């Protein structure tokens, strides 16, 4: 069976883990953690980066940082992973879902303003498949209504947005805060792992405290205070050096990983184009303001029936393709709470989107040949 995902190892992971272990410092915030954080700050224009144990944790830190309280409203797409919402639900927020765009699972920025109320505190754009949301509009609305923007950049490492001013910015460097994931299903991995990107200076000091269990331990180790103690709420959000060492081996090879993934993506795209048109299937769209980081190759089928048939056919041919999110407003947990609008575009992607295997060592030509033989 061709798997849907297969974690890629660059070869240096165990070597760096051994270095970390031998250094005698295996708790968090050591040399490898700092290397990884610096990588994000220097390559992607992020003001301050903090490694976390997951993207979920980075989102929870963001919710604490913007002081989400009972009754606050947070606007986000429904076609996303549960963590995007859970981080805010845990702090008592009410989630307001905005529909997806017609041409992309990303949120439809033209539908945002109608959902803003005096209780709205934040907008959480999710860069689905690593493709940018329309950030100019989102940031302008946030400014106008005094809201925070937290980018869910879980899938968006090494992807960019070009605004109307022509400046190309890395995803995760635009919102006040952003969260990345290094889960083994993402492009750059550490098993479990994540990163909080802090782009608004006002959050930097407090973020470090929340990250270190609510203590000013980081400032203490820099010699800024002469003893450390409990100064705020917090939790254990920082990963051990063992995880950071693994991640560093991946980041060192980011260019290579990205270029191989992109070649697989482009192979799918060019060789499946005619077949897709013949079968009324849509291939992924990359808007002019965004880039493709080859996180995912998906198909949008013409119906649920067509998708079910295609998934079945591929399974019979030993290829594991999968559908994606069951939109959150229809989830067993949130549908009893949610009393918002219908989200027809979100529902469409829930029913019709499917993903093909995409990982470093995948053999796309084999999969393409099988697919092209369907419904002949
Ligand atoms: C993977 C993912 C997450 C969660 O990441 P973890 O690191 O597993 O916590 C959150 N949001 C989106 C959009 C994701 O794809």
Automatic annotation (TrEMBL):
It comes from the Bacteria. Keywords: Pyridoxal phosphate. The modification N6-(pyridoxal phosphate)lysine is found at residue 186. One of its GO terms (molecular function) is pyridoxal phosphate binding. It holds the Pfam family DegT_DnrJ_EryC1. InterPro entries: DegT/StrS_aminotransferase, PyrdxlP-dep_Trfase, PyrdxlP-dep_Trfase_major, WecE-like. Gene3D superfamilies: Type I PLP-dependent aspartate aminotransferase-like (Major domain). GO terms for biological process: polysaccharide biosynthetic process. The active site is at 186 (proton acceptor). CDD domains: AHBA_syn (cd00616). Belongs to the DegT/DnrJ/EryC1 family. This is dTDP-4-amino-4,6-dideoxy-D-glucose transaminase.
């Amino acid at each position: 069976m061709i798997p849907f995902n297969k974690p890629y190892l660059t070869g240096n992971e165990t070597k760096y883990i051994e270095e970390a272990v031998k250094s005698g410092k295996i708790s968090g915030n050591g040399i490898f953690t700092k290397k990884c954080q610096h990588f994000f700050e220097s390559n992607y224009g992020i003001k301050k980066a903090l490694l976390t144990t997951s993207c979920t944790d980075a989102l929870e830190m963001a919710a604490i940082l913007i002081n989400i309280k009972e009754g606050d409203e947070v606007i986000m797409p429904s076609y996303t992973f549960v963590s995007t919402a859970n981080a805010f639900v845990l702090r008592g927020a009410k989630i307001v879902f905005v529909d997806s765009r017609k041409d992309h699972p990303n949120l439809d920025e033209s539908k945002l303003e109608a959902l803003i109320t005096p209780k709205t505190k934040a907008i959480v754009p999710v860069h689905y498949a690593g493709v940018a949301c329309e950030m100019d509009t989102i940031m302008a609305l946030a400014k106008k209504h005094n809201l925070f923007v937290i980018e869910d950049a879980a899938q968006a490492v090494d992807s960019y947005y070009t605004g109307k001013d022509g400046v190309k910015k890395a995803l995760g460097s635009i919102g006040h805060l952003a969260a990345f994931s290094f889960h083994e299903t993402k492009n750059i991995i550490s098993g479990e792992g994540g990163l909080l990107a802090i782009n608004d200076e006002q959050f930097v000091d407090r973020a470090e405290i929340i990250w270190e269990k609510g203590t000013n331990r980081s400032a203490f180790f820099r010699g800024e205070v002469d003893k450390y103690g409990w100064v705020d709420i917090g939790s254990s959000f920082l990963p051990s050096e063992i995880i950071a060492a693994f991640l560093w081996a991946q980041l060192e090879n980011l260019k290579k990983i990205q270029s191989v993934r992109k070649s697989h993506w482009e192979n799918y795209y060019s060789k499946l184009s005619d077949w897709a048109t013949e079968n009324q299937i849509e291939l992924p769209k990359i808007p002019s303001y965004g880039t493709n980081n080859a996180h995912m190759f998906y198909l949008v089928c013409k119906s649920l029936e067509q998708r079910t048939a295609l998934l079945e056919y591929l399974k019979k041919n030993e290829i594991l393709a999968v559908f994606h999110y069951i939109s959150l407003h229809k989830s067993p947990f949130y549908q009893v709470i949610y009393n918002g609008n219908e989200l027809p575009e979100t529902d469409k992607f829930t029913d019709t989107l499917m993903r093909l295997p995409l990982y470093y060592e995948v053999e796309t030509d084999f999969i393409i040949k099988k697919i092209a033989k369907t419904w002949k």
